[in-house]
Amino acid sequence: MQVKLLFFLVLASLLHAEFINKVENSNFTLSQDALNDKTYLYNYDRLRLRSDYIQENFFATLIADGVNYYGDSYTNSLDFAYIKQQKSDTPFKTQTSFHTYDNGAIYAKLYRLYTGYEDDFNRIVLGLQNITMGVGHIWTPTNIFNPVNTYALEPDETFGVFALSYTRHFSDTSKLSCVVSQRADDSYKYALQYKAYFNFADFGVDILHSDDTDMIGYEIEANVADTGIEARSEGAYINNNLGEFFQGIVGADYAFVNGITLTTEALYSSKTFPYSQILLNSNSEITPNLVNSYFYAAVSLTYSFNIYLDGSLLYIESFNKNVGRFVAPNLTYTLNDYNSFSAGALLEKHSDTYYFKWVLAF
Fold first, then answer.
1. Residue 98 is inside which H or E element, if any?
2. What is the CA radius of gyration of the chain?
3. Class of domain 2-361
4. CA 89/CA 4 separation, integer angstroms
5. Helix, strand, coil in percent for the chain, rounding step 5
6. What letter does residue 73 receive in the DSSP assignment?
7. How does pLDDT run across 33-91, given as a tens digit for each residue?
8. Residue 79 host element (H or E)
């Protein structure tokens, strides 16, 4: 309660400040194949309002969304029922209930709300925020807070964490970060990270503890000689009530002179989980670590055809015939500073999704 009171007192002091406001509307038209051989054609629209405040060393950010699904075949499906059950692991609700109408459903959510202070050596943030851990681009096994979901339509869209985070920069090449977050059951999750540069690479150690999970992990990033290759690796030993196992990734990036950027990454897990167990534990804090295969390999290509047109292709092989592969092509045309259009697909063994996206920002 003391942390919550402090948070809202600081927020109240900023209400009379001048904010920089931004409005962004993301509209998706989707065709999605379901497991029962039925195809859903529907529209997903997210209106996002963002306000940022910076005054000397103090800052605050508010991001709120209004979300609408249009297409009764989808909003009456089991897939949509699963989406409605997903909630943030926070001590307060971050979204309203779904309001249904004739052909769709609508709800509002608080995406981010935090305030903080930063100077040359310190950064402290309190509120509903994003906690980053790990160096992986496709998988981040050490991040038990806000892991990237590569298989999602928007991989970076993750629930916020209600936390107090502090980072101390000892030098330009070393820092210590601490996180205390409060969960939906009012228990706490603690994390500690130390990162520093030694000789040829950046090294990091990550430690996490909660009532359900203990994790210790590592991070390594380095330039490979003078080749221009950026290599990285991270790994996590996880002890949870669902099992005790190790997960690790190795990866590399290389930017060719013709504008193509190549990213490769491989994931190993010492333990696998059946699909039914993953569904039953969809609210577990380690759900992104519950994988079907011992080994995955991924290749990602991005290319800028010109200043307006960009393309990308992600290919993931699971090396498990019961899981299959995942392919995600995308083509984006940027009309101007306010409008961009994308067409793409998420292709996997049991379900294919095709989409057209229009983003309007001002």
1. none
2. 21
3. mainly beta
4. 16
5. 10, 55, 35
6. H
7. 876 678 899 999 999 999 999 999 999 999 999 999 999 999 999 889 989 989 999 99
8. helix 78-85
Q: Are strands 39-55 and 58-70 parallel, antiparallel or unpaired?
A: antiparallel
One-letter amino acid of 199:
N
Q: Which helix (H) or strand (E) holds 133?
A: none
Dist. CA 109–CA 155, nearest whole Å:
18
Q: How far from 5 is each of 10, 11, 127, 181, 266, CA to CA, in Å? A: 9, 10, 11, 15, 44
pTM of this prediction?
Answer: 0.91
Residue 137 CA to residue 156 CA, distance in Å, equals: 11
> What amino acid occupies position 320?
N
Report phi then psi at 289, rounded to 5.
-90, -5
Distance from the first to the final alpha carbon of the chain: 37
Give Cβ neighbours of residue 300 (< 8 Å, ≥ 6 apart): 137, 138, 262, 263, 264, 265, 312, 313, 314, 315
Apex CA 138: angle with CA 134 and CA 140, to 5°?
Answer: 25
Q: Cα–Cα distance between 35 and 242 in angstroms, integer?
A: 26
Domain boundaries, the chain: 2-361
CA atoms within 13 A on the CB side of 273: 20
> Per the structure block, which two tokens stand in for 54?
């910076």
Rounded Cα distance between 262 and 209, Å, is 35
Q: How many CA atoms does the CB half-sphere of 292 hold within 13 Å? A: 14
252-284: pLDDT as tens digits: 999 999 889 999 999 999 999 998 898 888 889
**Contact partners, residue 89, CB within 8 Å, separation at least 6:** 159, 161, 183, 184, 283, 285
Which residue type does 152 have? Answer: A
